[in-house]
């Protein structure tokens, strides 16, 4: 009996030892500390790009044509062109290709991620790294801000002051909301990020996230560090960009419409040899500014010693004129009628016309040859001067030579 018990115990020991050995063998090669492959990102060398970087057709006049278009070349050059006869989007794009053909910039494309290897099974889950609190502006607010800026520019370009004011109010409200998100920086509860002056964007790639939106976002962050009110912050962000855009437009084009800068500048002054828009000054004698006066489109040209107002074949001289809110003025007086409208109303044929302000009234000063009869029977021609109100076309004054009383019509 004892012998049987001994043999049974020995069998149990052997079976237990074999099971333990099998369990150890089965677990060999399996590590609970499996390495996680890291995805590498391949770098891309900078390349030179030429041509049109950004294109936008505006002021649609039919299903497939537009009156104006905006271009930005890769080197940062910007231009806005208009054509009342309307052009298709393709025609505007071809024009943009021509002006940007030789304008290039070295850009760095977005890096392309390397192929991701299939990760090995991981028995444990790594703990997430806690996010670091920063003073960056939240993305939804900034996307809304970008859209409002675009809407504001369109409203100003269209001369819609009421809509522009409504959008400005929205921007101010949004900036106050954004300002609340900056309190963490001031109290020290968040880690401020130093913001350098952003570089002017030269690449606006679709989907790249690098372009005008990023540029304005960085600039807004920098301005938000100041203690000015929201209104001043908006002005600081936009004023330098608007001034630069207008200066390039005036210098780079032979003619433009006053409506293109209406709302962007408070006043445009045309002086001999110079065009001034707020603080911007462009020396020129070969530019034209188009503006609607009465029922006619006039062309304003700065010359070396005077300013010429063209109404078709009628040329009117002026010392200087100004344009404010799409309204032509001389001195502080508004010009409401074109030269041709005044001439047609008075049935005159002036040989010389001049636009001046006299006694706080804008007047067209005209010199006219008039046929009369000296002593009632000798045919003569005298020079008559007529001053007409440029607001309503009425005669303000009329003068002839002193001896004209000796003549009759």
Question: What's the short version?
Answer:
This protein is 31% helix and 32% strand.
What does this structure look like?
With 409 residues, the chain is α+β, with helices and mostly antiparallel strands. The chain folds into 3 domains: 65 residues; 107 residues, no CATH class; 155 residues, no CATH class. Helix content is 31%, strand content 32%. The strands form 5 sheets. Strands 8, 12, 13, 14, 15, 19, 20, 21, 22 and 23 form a 10-stranded mixed β-sheet that branches. Strands 11-10-9-16-17-18 form a 6-stranded antiparallel β-sheet, with helices on one face. The protein has a 3-stranded antiparallel β-sheet with strand order 3-4-5. Helix 3 packs antiparallel against helix 4 and helix 6 packs across helix 7. The N terminus is likely disordered.
Give me some keywords for this one.
409 residues, single chain, 31% helix, 8 helices, 3 domains, alpha+beta, ten-stranded mixed beta sheet, disordered N terminus
Major sheet characteristics: 10 strands, mixed
- Could you tell me the strand content as a percent range? 25-35%
How many whole angstroms does the radius of gyration measure?
A: 38 Å
Uncertain regions: pLDDT < 50 for 5+ in a row?
1-8, 10-42, 129-134, 190-196, 201-217
Helical residues, percent: 25-40%
Provide mean pLDDT, rounded: 73
Give the helix/strand class. Answer: alpha+beta
**Outline:** elongated
The count of DSSP E runs of length 2 or more, i.e. the number of strands, is 23
Number of helices: 8
Domain tally: 3
Distance separating the two termini? 165 Å
């Amino acid at each position: 009996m004892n012998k049987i018990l001994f043999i049974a115990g020995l069998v149990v020991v052997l079976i237990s030892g074999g099971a333990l050995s099998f369990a150890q063998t089965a677990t060999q090669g399996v590590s609970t500390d499996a390495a996680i492959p890291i995805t590498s990102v391949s770098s891309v060398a900078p390349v030179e790009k030429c041509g049109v970087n950004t294109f936008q057709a505006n002021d649609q006049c039919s299903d497939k044509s537009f009156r104006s278009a905006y271009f930005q070349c890769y080197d940062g050059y910007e231009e806005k062109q208009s054509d009342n006869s309307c052009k298709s989007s393709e025609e505007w794009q071809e024009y943009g290709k021509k002006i940007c053909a030789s304008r290039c910039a070295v850009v760095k494309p977005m890096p392309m991620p390397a192929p991701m290897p299939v990760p090995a099974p991981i028995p444990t889950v790594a703990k997430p790294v806690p996010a670091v609190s920063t003073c960056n502006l939240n993305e939804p607010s900034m996307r809304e801000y970008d859209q409002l800026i675009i809407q504001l520019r369109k409203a100003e370009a269209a001369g819609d002051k009421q809509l522009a004011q409504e959008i400005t109010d929205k921007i101010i409200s949004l900036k106050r909301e954004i300002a609340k998100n900056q309190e963490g920086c001031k109290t020290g509860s968040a880690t401020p990020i130093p913001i350098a002056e952003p570089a002017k964007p030269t690449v606006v790639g679709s989907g790249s996230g690098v372009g005008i939106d990023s540029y304005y976002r960085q600039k807004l962050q920098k301005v938000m560090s100041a203690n000015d009110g929201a209104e001043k912050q908006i002005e600081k962000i936009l004023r330098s960009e608007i001034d630069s855009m207008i200066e390039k437009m005036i210098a780079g084009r032979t003619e433009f419409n006053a409506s293109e800068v209406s709302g962007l500048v408070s006043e445009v002054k045309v002086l001999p040899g110079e065009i001034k828009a707020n603080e911007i000054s462009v020396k020129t004698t070969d530019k034209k500014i188009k503006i609607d006066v009465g029922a006619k489109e006039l062309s304003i040209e700065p010359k070396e010693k005077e300013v010429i107002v063209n109404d078709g074949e009628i040329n009117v001289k002026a010392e200087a004129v100004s344009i404010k809110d799409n309204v032509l003025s001389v001195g502080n007086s508004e010009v409401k009628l074109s030269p041709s409208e005044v001439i047609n109303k008075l049935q005159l044929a002036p040989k010389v016309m001049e636009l001046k302000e006299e006694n706080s009234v804008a007047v067209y000063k005209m010199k006219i040859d008039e046929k009369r009869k000296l002593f009632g029977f000798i045919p003569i021609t005298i020079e008559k001067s007529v001053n007409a109100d440029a607001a309503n076309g009425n005669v303000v004054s009329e003068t002839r030579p002193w001896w004209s009383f000796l003549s009759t019509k």
